[in-house]
Amino acid sequence: MGDLKCLTTKEVARLCRVSDATVKRWHDAGLMESERTSGGHRRFRAEEIARFQREQKLGLKRCHGDETVVAASTRGRRDSKTYSDSIFFYSLLKGCEEAAANILVSAYLQGKSPAEIFDDVICPALSQIGELWASGHMTISQEHLASHVAHAAIYKLRSALCVSKSAANLAMCCAPEGDLHELPTHLAKLTIEDEGWDAMNYGANTPLGDFMKEVLRHKPALVCLSATIIIDAECFFHDYKTFREQIAKLKIPVIIGGRAFEDECLRQHFPAEFYARNFGDVAGFVQNLEN
Ligand code: B12
After folding, report:
1. Helix 97-109 crosses helix 83-94 at what angle (to 10 degrees)?
2. pTM
3. Over pLDDT 90: what percentage of the chain?
């Protein structure tokens, strides 16, 4: 857990999706506590805002369906780590974008790093969605809805993250041609940004040859390659060999990650400076690069 953060009135307003004046009114009515800076400005402790959001059910009001159904099913679950993790899963299932976003932002405000949120909340929930789909308990449409809600919630989380405006280091991320899974490279990008770097995500289904040209143009300090599914292994292997040769000349380190690379035999064909099992690994590698 990182340090708890203090928020300005404007930041609280943005998180709660209300005006600055509304936040001041809530504060003056005693609904939320704050401290004052030496200049007399309000500063809100993150856990106080998380409490307020939970109590006021902010972010839940646009949720579809019956929340009690979600709560009832959650009580029966024993495999999720915490109540909010399983609520996140049900928010995806039920298409509750606001609730899903609220859980992620609250976790962040309580001091979890983005990498921890990705590894502990988002990935397990999507794994469960994938299992339901694979076992025929969920239709493709339902899986699509859940994935879209996850994407939307992550975009909302990003708006709460402190992203450095002019970072010295750049990382470039992509997933290879044929792989349509968008989230891994997006999460890798956000993880790297949270370490104070700049990051560009070219996303899924990117031909490696094209990406190479971009890498040569921008000369990043790091390349992050994710593969969930490799459609044409022979072609990818061939393209990666050329890619790797070029990139080695520039001495740019490469991180590989993703479900496809969990196969150790396959991994041997893709030499890289680092194999990341999760986003915590990515954050750690970036920190080491800086030291
Ligand atoms: C959403 C989804 C889709 C969506 C993607 C939409 C989109 N715009 O992104 C769509 C509908 C396109 C899709 C299609 C398919 N999918 Co799909 N999909 C998923 C689902 C539910 C979530 C994927 C996701 O974003 N996960 C979030 C990532 C971050 O988590 P993760 O993959 O578990 O990754 C872990 C690690 O590998 C690591 N990690 C992952 N990536 C990276 C990257 C880096 C850099 C690092 C450091 C770490 C890292 O972090 C995670 C935590 O440990 C997964 C289920 C699941 N378990 O994830 C199935 C899943 C990946 N899909 C699967 C399948 C089979 C398919 C299809 C073949 C189905 C079909 N018959 O058409 C197609 C393939 C399409 C293609 N050519 O790519 C299988 C893959 C099985 C396998 N072989 O491994 C899964 C696991 C479902 C399942 N249980 O069977 N899918």
Report:
1. 150
2. 0.81
3. 52
Reported residue count of the chain is: 291
Say how many Å lie between the CA of residue 124 and the centre of ligand 1. 12
Nearest-CA residue for ligand 1 atom 50 is 278
Asked, for residue 281, whether it belongs to a domain, the answer is yes
Count Cβ atoms within 10 A of the Cβ of residue 287 and give its class: 0-12 exposed, 13-18 middle, 19 or more buried: exposed
> In the prediction, which pLDDT does 177 show?
95
- Going by alpha carbons, the residue nearest to atom 54 of ligand 1 is 130
Task: Please say whether the dihedral angle defined by the alpha carbons of residues 156, 160, 161 and 163, taken in this order, is positive or negative.
Answer: positive
Question: What confidence score (pLDDT) does residue 182 get?
Answer: 96
120 and 212 in a single domain? The answer is: no
Give the residue among 152, 85, 143 at the shortest CA–CA distance from 119: 85
Q: Count structural domains, the chain.
A: 3
Report the pocket of ligand 1 as residue ranges, CB < 6 Å: 119, 123, 126-127, 129-131, 134, 143, 147, 178-184, 187-188, 224, 226, 228-229, 231, 257-259, 276, 278-279, 281-282
Tens-place pLDDT, residues 37-48 = 888 888 888 777
Which residue's CA lies nearest to atom 1 of ligand 1? 147
**Residue identifier of the C-alpha nearest atom 11 of ligand 1:** 144
**pLDDT single digits (tens) 71-83:** 433 444 444 455 4
Read off the pLDDT of residues 178-217 as tens digits, 9 standing for 90 and up. 999 999 999 999 999 999 999 999 999 999 999 999 999 9
Q: Which residue, of 50, 76, 91, is where some domain finishes?
A: 50
pLDDT at 138 over 60: yes
What SS3 class is residue 109? helix
Q: Count each helix (H run) and each strand (E run) in the chain, helices first.
A: 14, 8
Average pLDDT of span 142-168: 85
